[in-house]
Amino acid sequence: MTTTESGTAGGSDEHPEIDWVAAERSPEFRELVKRKRAFVIPATIFFLAWYFGFIVLAGYAPDFMGEEFITDGLTVGYALALTQFVMTWVLGWMYLRRADRVFDPLAEKAAEVALRAGHDRAGRFERGDEGVTRR
Amino acid sequence: MTWVAAVNETALVVFAIVVGVTLVITYFASKRVATATDFWAAGRGLTGPQNGFAIAGDYMSAASFLGIAGLIYLFGFDGFLYSVGFLVAFLTVLFLLAERMRNSGKYTIADVLAFRLKERPARAAAALGTLSVVAFYLIAQMVGAGVLIEGLVGIDFWLSVVLTGAFMIIYIVAGGMLATSWVQIIKAFLLMGAAVVMTVWVLAEIGWNPIDLFRDARSESADGQAYLEPGLFLSTPLDTVSLGLGLVLGTAGLPHILMRFFTVPDAKAARGSVMWAMVLIGAFYVMTTALGFGARAILGQGGEEAAGPTGNFALPTLADELGGELFLAIIAGVAFATILAVVAGLVISASGAVAHDVWSNIVRRGQDSEKEEVWVAKIAAVSIGAIAIIIAIAGGEGLNVSFMVGLAFAVAASANFPALLLALTWRRFNTTGAVTGVLFGVISSVALVIISPTVWPGADSEGGLFSWYDLANPGIISIPLGFIGCWLGTVLSKEQVNVRTFDELYVRSETGLGAETGTGLTLTGRGERARATAGATTTVPHP
Q1: In this structure, what CATH number is given to the domain that contains residue B14?
Q2: What would the pLDDT profile of B111-160 be if each residue is shown by its tens digit?
Q3: In-domain check, residue A115
Q4: What residues in B contact A87, CB-CB < 8 Å?
Q5: Is residue B129 part of a domain?
Q6: What is the DSSP letter of B526?
Q7: pLDDT at site B296
Q8: Among A31, B105, B336, B477, which is least packed by CB within 10 angstroms?
Q9: What range does the domain containing A33 cover?
């Protein structure tokens, strides 16, 4: 790398042989996107709703937030604030687990399919070149 | 502030240790950093946990350490609202941007936009967003640094600002992102350590029952039960919601945070680093309960004068009360390390916008050498640092910076976040949309803050340009405007959308296909830790 690769934001591998439109339409990529959306969209809606529920209550119902919860001194507001921390950690952990078990293998498969199609198309399918390694 | 003169020397020794350690790191890093990837992305050689600590160190500023504790000390529950928002924001980063940035970007957020849009206008827009955020954030940090160091150590304001700026410039110019990352990692350790020690100390002081924090704080506050309820600091409900929106979406548009995802070898490490950061940052913000409410319980109303009008000195005062001079000096040293790590992160991201986006790709149209690009980055870092020093000193301690961090988050949420998110997910999105979106976001955030009661017509005023407009936080208006700008620009322009490029960006960002892998760069050498991402079947070009 001696010169700046302008415009190649993706990095070192250009992959001119890959048909990206076909890759985007491949069943493997569609499956990855579908599974990812099935987690990310509901999870995003949930955390935004939970967080803004808390914020709206803090703004518009200060009296409710100041009520005693379980014991004198602990307020509903502080207890709800603590649930935000727990929610963040749990959702983060769930996403990581899902990504390791579901998204990564699917992404690997989609990438492999795109690469193989590209090699076939370019007519220079070389042995040992299609092995996709991913950690 | 009776303790200022007394701590001078001890604090200076602690400061010298902090500076000494960071300079040793910088020395080692300076011998390793050679290429542009080394300079801006630490050779993509950081592990997930390392980057997690670095994100925590990059993110939590003195506003978190001293500011939130001070807000809680003065206003109770409302201060803790900031703690919650600052953490939850990382879910936005994790779900929507972290891995995609890693898979499709190189050094700056502009890389992602320029991938599928017209290169020069897209980079110009992204650079505008980045530089606006950095400008507001950086000036707030520099003025804050001067006030804090002057108060804690007794060094004059102007000298404090110069020293902060000078060390930051040394880290970046000599050691690039590698040195910056390790300064941030060490700062995160120091910050967490200090918070844990203070929390345990406070709990010991009040008799180990955490609930007594609230009971004692309430009885020590003139506001009584209201101290434990919302509304003392944020009295306009809509403003509270607006603040929350700005915090939760703004983090996902902060250039210095997003840049950190380029420093790891693959998407897996990127998401792992967010989880590490969430654990650290969350643990820290939970502890702000003990720091803030504890300060109230232990110092009572007697500490209000020493804490100052913003409450920033509440925590140092508490440290002095608990452990005397030495502990106060240590807390001051941690605060100094905190500021250094944040300003270094901000300026290196700005240097990317100037050198990689504006100079290399807009001015030189990609015809410059990598060596030239890194040189320009270093010149940019020195210049930006110098400008920040000059503005901070010219503005002086009296400069009203309280709104600036909020403004930085608002610009990030209203300009950078919409453009990035839509570039990655909306097929129809085009260059005109990105440019108008960023312009809408930047202009509306700045304009709304200028006419807000906290700024108009002058510092510390209680006016506002319009009597009906009383929001200090513009997010609830400016964020939708940013998205509307993106949409309007897109649908009104006759620009041909290059669908094929969207497909390529989409597939690359979701699968990591063709993403640049790590070079195995570490502080001590170039190891064999380069790991392949999906599809990276060719070997990594070693510089």
Answers
A1: 1.20.1730.10
A2: 999 999 999 999 999 999 999 999 999 999 999 899 888 888 888 899 99
A3: yes
A4: 88
A5: yes
A6: E
A7: 96
A8: A31
A9: 20-120
Q: Which domain holds residue B27?
A: 4-395
Helix ranges restricted to H, B352-430: 370-395, 404-411, 417-425
Q: Is residue B448 part of a domain?
A: no
- Chain B 227-266, residues with CB within 8 Å of chain A CB atoms: 228-231, 234, 236-241, 243-245, 248, 266
Q: Give burial (CB, 10 Å; 0-12/13-18/19+) of A86.
A: exposed
Query: Which of B37, B99, B534 is the closest to A111 by Cβ?
Result: B534
Does any domain span residue B481? no
- The chain A residue lying nearest B83, using CA atoms, is A81
Q: Which residue of A has its CA nearest to B501?
A: A20
In the numeric block, the tokens 């009520």 are attached to A67
In a domain, A63, yes or no: yes
Please answer yes or no on whether A32 and B510 come within 8 Å at the CB atom.
Answer: yes
Chain centre distance of CA A123: 34
- For residue A69, the SS3 value is strand
What's the domain count of chain A?
1
Q: What is the pTM for the complete model shown?
A: 0.92
Contacts of B236 in chain A (CB under 8 A): 59
With an 8 Å Cβ cutoff, are B282 and A59 in contact?
Answer: no
What does the alpha-carbon distance between residue B51 and residue B517 come to, in Å, rounded to a whole number?
Answer: 15
Query: What is the number of structural domains in chain B?
Result: 1
Domain-located, residue B532: no
pLDDT digit string, tens, across residues B220-269: 999 999 999 999 998 889 999 999 999 999 999 999 999 999 999 999 99
